[in-house]
Amino acid sequence: MKLVKNFMIHKLILLIAVSIIPFSQLPLNAQETTNSSVKSSFAVSFEPPNKDKPLATSGGASRGGQCMANMNNSEVTITPILPAMNQRLTVASHPTFFVHVPHTSAQKVFLNIQDENEEDSYQTVLPISGQSGIISVTLPQEAPPLKMGKNYQWSLALMCEDRLKPDSPIVMGSVTRVQPKMQLSEKLNGMAQIEQAALYAEAGIWYETIATLAQLRQEQPGNSNLLSIWEEVLSSVGLDSLAKAEFVE
User: Fold this and answer.
1) What pLDDT, on a 0 to 100 scale, did the predictor assign at position 140?
2) Residue 49 backbone phi and psi in degrees, to 5
3) How confident is the model over 85-115, as pLDDT tens digits?
4) How far is CA 182 from the centre of its chain?
5) What's the CA gap between 202 and 141, in Å, rounded?
6) Is pLDDT at 37 greater than 80 in this prediction?
7) Residues 6+ apart with CB under 8 A from 231
8) 232 by DSSP, 3-state: which?
9) Which domains does the chain have, with CATH numbers?
C-alpha cells in the first residue's frame, strides 16, 4: 500500500490489493463480484472536488464545557471527522456525520443543520454513551432531505446536564449534496464495499467514502487491513491523532 500525500495540490492515493479482505469475510454480494485469486491492485484516490483548496482547519473542534472538565490534557478534543476542504460532498439525502468525542458525562447531543441562508432546517436530540471514541450521527429520515446542490452547515453539541449551555462543547462542519454522475452510479452496482469506497474517493465524495470504510471496520473489527486503510486515510487529511480511535455508540 502506498499513499501519496500533498494537501495543497496533489491527490491523495492509497494503493490497496483487491484481495485485502479475506474472501470468506466478504458479504455474499461482494463475494459474487470479487475473485480472491485476483492479484492486481487498484487506487483509492480521494481527490478534492473541482480543485478545491484546503481550509485553515479541518472543522470546529472544541474543548470547553463542564461535562469534559476532568478530561486529560493529552486527550483529543471533540472533533469532526472532516478533511480541510471547502467542499465536503455527499450523494445522500440524509448523510451520516462522524465526530470524535472524549470521555464525557453528557448522555445526549444536540444536532442542528442549517441551509446556506443560515436558516434552521432541522434540529434534534440524540443519545450517546459518553465513552471516548468516534460516534456516527445520521440525519434522521423524518428530517427534510438535503436539497441537491445546496450548501448546509451542521453542528453537534454535547448537552451537559441534559441541556445546552453557552460553553457546551460543539463542533461544526459543512456538507453539500450533489447528484452522482450516471457513470458512477452504474459502476457502484454490484461492487464490493471496498471498491465502492474507492469510487467515492476518486469522485471526491467524502461523506460516502468515510461512511463506507467505517461500516466495513465495524462489521470486521478484527481485519487489520481495513484498520490500516482507515488509519492512513484519516492521517492523509490531517487527522493523525484520531486514526486509532475506536467506534462507540
Assistant:
1) 94
2) -65, 135
3) 778 999 999 999 999 999 999 999 999 999 9
4) 23
5) 28
6) no
7) 243, 244
8) helix
9) 3-51+181-242 (no CATH), 66-177 (2.60.40.10)
Q: Is the dihedral of CA 69, 73, 78, 84 positive or negative?
A: positive
Residue 78, all three cell numbers: 471533540
Q: Burial of 43 by CB count in 10 Å (0-12 exposed, 13-18 middle, 19+ buried)?
A: middle
Contact 219, 28 (CB under 8 A): no
Q: Residue 106 in contact with residue 130, Cβ under 8 Å?
A: yes
Provide φ and ψ at 226, rounded to 5°.
Answer: -65, -40
d(Cα 178, Cα 146) in Å, to the nearest integer?
10
**Residue that wins the pLDDT comparison between 55 and 14:** 55
Q: What is the pLDDT confidence band of residue 228, given thresholds at 50, 70 and 90?
A: confident
The contacts of residue 163 (CB under 8 Å, 6+ apart) are none
Q: CB–CB of 168/158 below 8 Å?
A: yes
Read off the amino acid at residue 163.
R
Amino acid at 183: Q
Residue 68, all three cell numbers = 469534559
pLDDT exceeds cutoff 80 at 133: yes
Name 176's Cβ contacts closer than 8 Å, sequence gap at least 6: 87, 88, 89, 90, 149, 150, 151, 152
The cell 470479487 sits on which residue? 34
15: which residues sit within 8 A by CB, 6+ positions away?
A: 1, 2, 3, 41, 42, 43, 44
